[in-house]
Amino acid sequence: MRLLSRRAHLAVAAVLDVALHARGAAVPGKAVAARLGLPARALEPLLQALVREGFLAGTRGPHGGYTLARERRRIRLSDILAAAERAEPDGLPPSALIEQIVTPVLAEAAAGARERLRATTLDDLCRQAEAMGLGRDRSGEDFTI
């Protein structure tokens, strides 16, 4: 069961991908999209939203792409998820059942998850991915995460 939207999952994955692959150079959006199995045009609006929210820095031009806008240890997963929620309109129809029953129960469940996510930084995820050998191979070449 997924409590978070696809967009929220992609936001965390995109920032993590940039953190793992931006070693002194900007990571092209097309490269991030390819590693996440998406067309570049589908991911670009989310990457731009992450720039506006201050998680990524974007550079235009032939050598452009994305880098982290701040240290990975200063980026909390809860903040990325909140940004993804702000960038995604709430598509729920008006309904007493949703508003009075479903939303409060899911909000309570989400509160516990938010506490865990506040305690988790991008650095924690990067260390876990690097320990598993994800992100770069021994030659320094990028590969799919």
From TrEMBL:
- What GO molecular functions are on record for this protein? DNA-binding transcription factor activity
* Pfam family for this entry, one: Rrf2
What superkingdom heads the lineage?
Bacteria
The Gene Ontology CC terms held by the record are:
cytosol
Name of the protein described by the UniProt record? Rrf2 family transcriptional regulator
State the organism named in the record: Blastochloris sulfoviridis
